[in-house]
Amino acid sequence: MNPQLVIGALLFWVAAWALNEYLVRRHGASRIAGFAVPVIFGVTLLVLWEGLTRGLAVPQVLLPPPSAIWERLVNSVPMLWADFQQTFKAVLAGYAIGCLSGFGVAVLVDRSPFLKRGLLPIGNFVSALPIIGIAPIMVMWFGFDWPSKAAVVVAMTFFPMLVNTVAGLNAAGSMERDLMRTYASPWLTTLIKLRLPAAAPFIFNALKINSTLALIGAIVAEFFGTPIVGMGFRISTEVGKLAIDLVWAEIAVAAVAGSAFYGLIALIERAVTFWHPSVRSGRA
Questions:
Q1: pLDDT tens-digit map of 240-282
Q2: What is the total count of domains within the chain?
Q3: Which range of residues forms the domain containing residue 105?
Q4: Residues 131 and 13 in one domain
């Protein structure tokens, strides 16, 4: 045990906390504070993690320090890259199919009161199904390679897109709809010029939710059968070997990839829905 490391980590935490408080009070909602505060907070967590695990001599099999995780990550780049490619094939394929099919079915549901009353409750039911129950079935249906993981991702992303799109299509105001009827606007024109723009924030909300669900679904699905590559496969096997530093390296790669995916969708949303009040107020 090394008390100096523990005390140093705690003092660093206090100093970083004070710095963040100063930035928030001095710069408020400025871009400087918006960028610096989370960076400082993240670095502080890493320093505190490092100091406590080394200072308290925590066994690496329980919680390795960030430096050990980083060292393992750097030394395992080829393996991590192969796992990332295998998993993200399922993520991207399932995400695209699930979101596009959910959007298409939502447009059909909006045209049919029968489907709206019959399909949406089923969607809520399926959304509540546990992934650990779906994944083994998909592996039996589609095999051990990435298509079975993509099928799990489709099942997880379809209904969030369906429900959000249906809600968004109903978000257009009654006055705007009456105006389109006054102009004798056909359904398709009303859909493209009024209802889809009004639904855009709801659709992008579903896309952002699905960006995280897709990665979680693909990784968990790999626990139930996969070739000897993939992020979920690596996590499950290395836990059995007590190689916890490699497990955390895989988690770090997944976290960075998921955050980048989410950030990309958010940037596209800001570019597409620049007219929306929430985007305009965020830029102000």
A1: 888 888 999 999 999 999 999 998 998 888 888 776 666 655 5
A2: 2
A3: 73-283
A4: no
Same domain for 79 and 43?
A: no
Which residue's structure tokens are 């952002």?
208
Phi, psi of 129 (to 5 degrees): -70, 135
| pLDDT of residue 36 exceeding 50 | yes
The pTM of this model reads 0.81
Residues 41 and 137 in one domain: no
Given a cut of 70, whether residue 284 has pLDDT beyond it is no
- By CB neighbour count within 10 A (0-12 exposed, 13-18 middle, 19+ buried), where does 57 fall? exposed
CB 70 within 8 A of CB 126: no
To which residue do tokens 């809520």 refer? 124
Quick: pLDDT tens for 227-241.
Answer: 788 898 899 888 888
CB 218 within 8 A of CB 94: yes
How far is the CA of 284 from the CAs of 31, 70, 236, 270, in angstroms? 11, 38, 46, 13
